[in-house]
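FAQ: What does the model actually see?

It sees only this:
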Amino acid sequence: MNRVTITHNGICQSNPSLLWLPFSLPFFFGVGGVVLGSLLLLSIVWKWRSLHHSWRSLLFLPLFASLLSTGVGYLWFPEWSTEWGLLAVAVSAGWLWRIEYLLSNDSPLGIEEWLFSARLFGLGSLAYLSLALLLRIDAAWLPGVLVLSGVLVHYSRLKGQLVRSQFGCPVSSPLVRMAIVKGDKIWLTDQPFTGCYVEGRESQCHAPTYRDHPLTSCVNPDETPEEALTRAFLSVGIHCDTPPRFLLKYQYTVCSNNKRTIYLYVLNLKSEAEIHALELRGYFYTPEQIEKRMQKGMFSSLFADEYDYLKKTLLKANVFPVSVNSESCN
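And it is asked to produce this:
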């Protein structure tokens, strides 16, 4: 079996919430904490920069500026230093939300982890700031404890993902995938079901997933592709009155020693109501939206190959009226 090669130390290095660890120090040590936090933030960014050479150091300058500004609060407006520190966390989270696409392109984690971190600290700091102003909370150290707790929460989240993904499909085992289309649009989700399919994330030939088809699963030695797809349906609670149609079988080279047979099935919907019955996360993306993101390298090569085939065949045929009954799921 393929083992995921991210270690617990790798989780620590890849945890985006570590960026807010330096912001907790001023709440405990005042101006001295600003100095210590700046040094800690510099070491974190330097370490990540050495691992991800495409990251530009200028991307993190707003975080340094936000952290250093808290020193101004302690020196000039000490009575508002806590509120200033919380705003610094919120502003930094907003900046991370702005640049998460750039960071996720060269990271072993998906874009969802950067978004989770930005939301956790951005919305969390604003919520606590509101409570502090309304209830007049005087514990200046408490936001620092909450920041530390947020880092631990994200670490626990990543650790849980690692435990759930300890094993991947056997090397070269087949995969079954399902696409959902309506007209010339494709349904993509940010958290696709992948069963036990996990390629080695350290591999240079495997890109992190941004958006993908909603279902991917291994085909076990004792089952057919149709049975594997049915098993995936049961895992996510989907029942289809009419099963997806088989569309394509092809070979996909993951690495030089890992070549997989891919079975692509398609659910060709005719109305928006049918997709709501599936209760799947995601949206329909137009060809223009997909190609714009594809130019930025936001999709895996597996999806890119399938999309190139779909747009020349099924998506092109769907723009013309047909008299075929649509599939329905509930």
